[in-house]
Design goal:
This protein has 236 residues and is α/β, with parallel strands linked by helices. The chain has 2 domains: 107 residues, Tetrapyrrole methylase, N-terminal domain (Cobalt-precorrin-4 Transmethylase, domain 1, 3-Layer(aba) Sandwich), CATH 3.40.1010; 107 residues, 2-Layer Sandwich (Methyltransferase, Cobalt-precorrin-4 Transmethylase, Domain 2). Helices cover 34% and strands 21% of the residues. It has 8 helices and 10 strands. The strands form 2 sheets. The chain has a 5-stranded parallel beta sheet, with helices on both faces. Strands 6-7-10-8-9 form a 5-stranded mixed beta sheet, with helices on both faces. α3 crosses α4, α6 crosses α7 and α7 runs antiparallel to α8. It starts with 11 loop residues before the first strand and ends in a 7-residue tail after the last strand. Bound molecules: S-adenosylmethionine. S-adenosylmethionine binds next to α5, β7 and β10.
Length: 236
């Protein structure tokens, strides 16, 4: 069992959260940690190269993404076992949260090797906190299925959940997802559509779902979105 201060161990995996838009949100500890790593595993090496350049950090990187996670996870953990410090970052936000990371973390836990969190930005928690919807109880659904039938099935399952639902959605599907949310939960359900958090066009649309389904369907939407859906009967 792992417990106590894991940061003093020689070889470790560092889960380093990176900005979801505003580079100023990269913590001093994130920078220090990345600078002292032997290797940084990243989702897209080109995206991370830009961040490392901005931070003035010169450390080798390696690709660690959904397609190669199964093969790369044990390789990275072998290196940690040999005493190396490996940083793990994703393109934005907290690694392993709707991003690659779970497999390498699990492998470290299986081998009883330290996993050190370097917390920071996360789109889901940030959107929830500023939404005005209940934060004491929430369910993180991540990305819903791509097709409407699958999305509706998942939503129906959580119709009576007594807290907020947190959903990631892409610009390509956000209008369709809003339509499905209205169909399943009804027009009066309160929603917060958090767009481009910490970026230039940051916007929070908050109100009854029915106020947003048509406007979102009628225009070409841009940006990144988190949807926070309030519990049944919740009034803002
Ligand atoms: N690991 C990331 C995190 O900690 O938030 C999430 C990665 S997931 C692949 C990307 C999704 O997160 C986007 O499609 C969007 O739903 C959400 N997201 C990321 N950055 C965002 C931002 N600045 N504003 C709104 N949503 C964002």
């Amino acid at each position: 069992m792992n417990s106590g201060d894991e940061s003093s161990a020689t070889g470790s995996l560092y889960l380093v959260a990176t900005p979801i838009g505003n580079l100023g949100d990269c913590s001093p500890r994130a920078k220090e940690t990345l600078a002292t790593c032997d290797l940084i595993a990243c989702e897209d090496t080109r995206v991370t190269a830009k961040l490392l350049f901005h931070l003035g950090v010169k450390v080798p990187t390696t690709s660690y993404r959904e397609e190669n996670e199964r093969r790369k996870a044990p390789e990275l953990v072998d290196r940690i076992e040999r005493g190396e410090k490996i940083g793990l970052v994703s393109d934005a936000g907290f690694p392993a949260i709707s991003d690659p990371g779970f497999r390498v973390v699990r492998e470290c836990r299986r081998r009883n090797l330290p996993v050190v969190p370097v917390p920071g930005p996360n789109a889901a928690i940030t959107a929830l906190a500023v939404s005005g919807l209940p934060t004491d109880k929430f369910l993180y659904l991540g990305f819903l299925p791509n097709k409407s039938a699958g999305r509706c099935r998942v939503l129906e399952q959580w119709n009576d959940f007594p807290g907020s639902l947190v959903i990631y959605e892409s610009k390509y599907r956000v209008a369709k997802a809003l339509a499905d949310i209205e169909n399943v939960f009804g027009p009066a359900r309160i929603i917060c559509i958090a767009r481009e958090i910490t970026k230039m066009h940051e916007t929070f649309y908050i109100g009854k779902i029915t106020d947003f389904t048509i406007p979102f369907a009628e225009k070409k939407v841009k940006g990144e979105f988190v949807l926070i859906v309030g519990p049944a009967g919740y009034v803002l």
